[in-house]
Amino acid sequence: MRVLLFALLLSIVSLSFATPDNVVLVVGDGMGFNHLFLSELLYGENPATRLFRVSLGLNSPVDALITDSAAAATALFSGVRTVNNAAGLDPSGNPVQSVATVLKERGWKVAMITNARYYDGTPAAFYAHAFRTDDLQITEDLVNSDIDLFVAGGLEKLGLNPFTGKPKKNGTLERLAASGYTVYGLQFEKLFEPIGEKKGSMAFLSMGDNSFENALLPNEMSLPEIVRKSLELIAGPKLFLVVEAARIDDASHINDDAVVKAELLAFQKTVRLLLDSFDNSKTLFLILADHETGGLSIIMGDERAIDLEIAWCSGDHTASYIPILSYGEGSESFSDFLHLSDVNRILLEILGGEVR
Ligand SMILES: [Zn+2]
């Protein structure tokens, strides 16, 4: 009996110290529960809701009921509730530490892929400390960051000549190379080799945001294509990968049914691709939204998505519970009712142990 009890105790202790080899965090910007339901009606069973543990989350900043992406991402990445417009700053404007910095210090690789411009609220809160309108500071923080892989849009602010498609002399793209990055441009064309010791890779794949999925320019890639290509540049173990499906938010701001459907299809394909790309038994997958956008409702139709009618009640973010979905190693830790800021704390607890 004693031996049995001891074995049981041992297994509990080893369970509580099990650390995933990799963490994959997908942020659906503006993706409320009804967006998830719509994606499932349109494109079949969504692994995000069928496979994953589903929890409710709160997201309010300290100065409002309704959050913007910067404050929500600061709560998520730094565990600090702050004011709207603050990316990587506390309510007084002081820098807060990002999970990217903490994990780098613990020997992890950190990567972020987004189809928004690099200076948008969500990516900025990952590596910068600035108010979201301060593009200059955000750009400086990007140059001085320590991310292993960063993929975004925003080429227009980085010194790319829009006529020749070539980087300007002494522009920010060149400074990124001087900071140790291999720099890629449109369609992952290599623009610069790193100068000195290689720190990582950065790719900027569009002027401004990547276009909507149903209106991609010939030189742009869809989000799942971007993720597939990005994964050729980095691998685990000890990889913390953030993928942002950013344009669900923009599609919902303009209340455009066709655009939001296309963005949700790209989101669903991206989730499947990520599940296929990592060992599910050793990876923690998290999917969550920073907030809901548009007040999307489905007011008509049947389960085969025939004659679906969508209604919108807002052109902005709304107050609602957000989905926090988790799957794989460590996912049981996310079963409580959480604020976005709790996700950061739990993640760092889970990743405090040794990788097997
Ligand atoms: Zn928005």
DSSP strand content: 15-25%
Our count of domains comes out at 2
As a percent range, the share of helical residues equals 25-40%
Instruction: Please tell me what the overall shape is.
Output: globular
Pfam families: Alk_phosphatase (PF00245), Metalloenzyme (PF01676)
Cofactor: Zn(2+); Mg(2+)
Enzyme class: hydrolase
Organism: Mesotoga infera
What does this structure look like?
- It comes from Mesotoga infera.
- Residues 1-18 form the signal peptide.
- The active site is at 69 (phosphoserine intermediate).
- The chain is an alpha/beta fold and 356 residues long.
- The chain has two domains: 23-154 and 223-350, Alkaline Phosphatase, subunit A (3-Layer(aba) Sandwich); 156-205, no CATH class.
- 33% of the residues lie in helices and 22% in strands.
- Strands 8-7-9-6-4-10-1-11-16-2-17 form an eleven-stranded mixed beta sheet, sandwiched between helices. A two-stranded antiparallel ribbon has the order 3-5. The protein has a two-stranded antiparallel sheet with strand order 12-15.
- A hairpin with an 8-residue loop joins β13 (297-300) and β14 (309-311).
- α4 (69-78) packs parallel to α6 (121-127), α9 (223-230) packs parallel to α11 and α10 runs antiparallel to α11 (257-277).
- The chain is globular, with a radius of gyration of 20 Å.
- Bound molecules: zinc ion.
